[in-house]
Amino acid sequence: MKHFFKNIYLNTHFFVSVSVLVFLFILAYIFPGLLVIAQMLFFVFVSLLIIDVILLFKQKGITASRILPEKLSNGDDNPIEISLKNNYNFTSSIKLIDELPFQYQKRDFEIDTKLEKQANKKITYTLRPLERGEYYFGHLNLYACSPICLISRRFQFGKDAMVPNYPSFLQLKKYMLMAFSNKIFEYGLKKIRRIGHTMEFEQIKDYVQGDDLRNINWKATAKSNRLMVNQYQDERSQPVYSVIDKGRVMKMPFEGLSLLDYAINASLVISNVALKKQDKAGLFSFSRKVENRVVAERRPSQMNTILETLYNLDTDFVESDFSRLYIDIKRSLNQRSLLLLYTNFETLDALHRQLPYLKAIAKNHLLVVIFFENTELQKLTRKSATNTFEIFEKTIAEKFIYEKKLIVNELQKHGIQSILTPPEHLTINTINKYLEIKARGLL
């Protein structure tokens, strides 16, 4: 009986009907002739209410289940599917309220739908998580009403379901197709023709215009009576490390995601691309000390190791120690490697403080410093200024944007590769840079 009353909810029609009846009974004091009509309507209302209760509680009602993915992809739209079945012999109006994880702080999520008698239906909605970690779903609440629609019966399903939110693995396939197709060149990378000059021999082939004359095989040319050249494979299995700064400069949020999470998502994708390109992929992060180390290898389980490491990467956003990073790289990396350093510099002074360590790292490794454009400043500069204060704001914003370009020039002056990118284009620009380095044979 307790659960019976607990699952009854009064609809708007109920309160409207009661209000009308109360109003009629009040009028009956003034116009006694209305009393009979009011009493008849009251009995009709009570009868409909009893019928409504019987219709909703006599049968099994609605069954539902929430179908969750094995894991969520951070920063992407993840589909959540709800399967409904109507066991009633009438069409039911349903209000669906899913208790979303506390990270969303959403208290007004509901879906209204109709379900034909003895019918099945699937409803899909999307969630875009913005924080890595565990996401707990509460009850799936359904409020079903009959065609009378005076009351609703509540059904509850799927309590305490947990789904981990991993770095954006949904981007892997998307960018993998781009990295191995000509579409990548639409994003700004120019195709560079390069012949390998390593000692790894591949084959002897006919000479075509553009082949390096130094590779002509004179013995094969004499035997076949036509020019033949040796072809060599480009060097493979180069170590590619994603180096993630998890200090305070990476806390700045853009479109809900912090710069750190953008760097984590890009690191996952570039590691996958590097492995598919026959290189070794590795990872480490740093702030006060170097942590989350994954040695660059080409094992079958390497991607899973990198994914789990990125999922568990945590920080308190303290000041980063670049000197500690330089010492650790010097001690642990003996082979020349490609280091993709995800960090952020807002001013030239900030760069100059760390420049000696970056130059020292770049002596033995190919260093690419990746930092971010402030897209909010870009929006501010595009607005029209209407008063002195707005002119002042716009001028300061343009100064900071220009200073970012000076940072790029300063790095180039010292022979350090760099990428200045909006956060949302980080992944594609990093892939472009990696493919350009491979094409030019810089590593």
TrEMBL record:
The keyword Transmembrane applies. The keyword Electron transport does not apply. Residues 204-370 form the DUF58 domain. InterPro entries: DUF58. Keywords: Membrane, Transmembrane, Transmembrane helix. The chain crosses the membrane at residues 12-31, 37-57. It comes from the Bacteria. It holds the Pfam family DUF58. This is DUF58 domain-containing protein. It comes from Mariniflexile gromovii. The lineage of its organism: Bacteria, Pseudomonadati, Bacteroidota, Flavobacteriia, Flavobacteriales.
